[in-house]
Design goal:
602 residues, alpha/beta, six-stranded parallel sheet, 22 helices, 61% helix
Length: 602
Amino acid sequence: MASALATGVLIIIVGGVAAQWLAWRFRLPAIVLLLAVGLLAGPVFEVIHPSRAMAGTLGPMVGLAVCIVVFEGGLALNLRELRAAGEGVLRLTVVALPISFVLGTVAARACTGMSWGAATLYGAITVVTGPTVILPLLRHTRLDRRAASFLKWEAIVNDPVGALLAAVVLDVATTKGGGVEAVGASVVAGAALAVALGAGAAFLVRFLFTRDLMPEPLKTPVLLALAMGVYVLGNLSLSEAGLIASTVFGVALANLRVPGLAELRRFKEALVVLIVSALFITLAADLDRHVLTQLSWPLIGLTTAMLILVRPAAIGLATVRSGLTWQERAITGWIAPRGIVAAAVAGVAGLRMQSAGIHGANLIMPAVFALITATVILHGFSLGPLARRLKLRLGATPGLAIVGASDWSTDLAACLHQAGVGVLLVDTYPGALKPARALGLPVLQAELLSDHGEEALESRAIDWVLAATPNDIYNGLVCARLGPDLGRERVFQTGPSGGLDPHRWVSRDWRGKVLGAPPWEASSLSSRYAAGWRFAAITLQEAALPDGRVPLIHVRHGAISLVSVEDEATPKVEAGDIAIVFGEVPVEHDEAAGAPETLAHG
């Protein structure tokens, strides 16, 4: 028993995190790797079988885990996004969902010969486009913010609605006699109670947090406990209504402007990554081999129809004469991966309908599994290329945001821009950005520590930040705020005016890495620039750095790395790299071609 438990933990937890790291390292969709690990560990080699090991508790445990996922997803739904994407979100969640339900039902009936009851349940289950798949894909792909909002809102809102719809269909299909009216009344009452529970929990949190009635160590446990509590209470009133309560709790909390919620959200994001990894492996491993053997040409035909007929037709009809561009309609018409909620509901509802003796119910689980597998693989690998083809991708290479417009930072931005690096110059003062605008450089007039600044930065292809204002403390604040999102090794700032003393200066947790080796202060950069020093992009012909000039940034095939005295290892330089250097003598550029100077060392 202990050996089986250890094996399960090793595969589900350690294997899940390892799959997430491999996906990040090699830029692959993590969901595809997680699905592969689960299938290999479960039905293929039969190393683990979660439902047998957990003795009937797997379903409730999956439900509680999913409620945390949808709660965290709700925290990502900012109502301000609706100003730009509101019509599209409304069309996808209110209009497209019933169309998908009807077309999916008809497709299941026509392709497999299921009874109308089983086909209707399949149609209800497959209206969801789970956030457990969409959100990791959006993090992996630099999708345009408006198009990303459509997919994100649809996934998070439709997930609980689809689960509730499946529960209603199951109740109606298994109800004998005239119980349909009673089911309808209970649905309305249960959904209303779920909304009230979620909203009430959010206002309770705001009341406690803003009045200092909750100590810091208890804030995250209280949020998780409330998310699971409203889920359980919602399910007691109506099956699957708990997901609505958890989602409403997250959405309401995200828009009540509760102080300190950003730090708590980052912890929950890390927790959700672990939960999603474990859930995908667990549910895939729990499939029996006979489910795989039930895959047949009719089920393959149904999956194909869902991919190329049902989804595109539903989105096309729902967005007729809307404000969505044809590119946005095309990408939402194709991208619709199903995830954990579809798998969990199919496993429970399919068995209940099968035990009720409804014809074709035995095909629901393999049909849903086939759709999940196909969409996870096809949509996971195609989202990036399709977004790039439709010009809905923010950028293929990392970009650098320079915070603080000055003479030297504008020159640095211009040098990077000429070298083909995506760069953005940020400042709150329009006059400081005027020279950059005159040079045609991308600029952003915003306070990055404000909601407006964060939202504006999210719509740009930025992966690195250099805080370069004269204020050391402000630079540290910017880096501390953006570090958890971009990565602490990707936020830099100019050196402190009093010298870099790791014991007396601001702790590394509250600032960025110091630019330059030796470190450069903003005042030193300004004075050297006034004395005639300039930035230049130099293409190296040898794997060595040029003499007499100070390298600050390296560029290799569009990817950048900033030099810091705090680097654990010296950056490796190869022939063909571009070095952004700061030199005493102005460098002559080929103005017509705009190409970097080529320099051979020695």
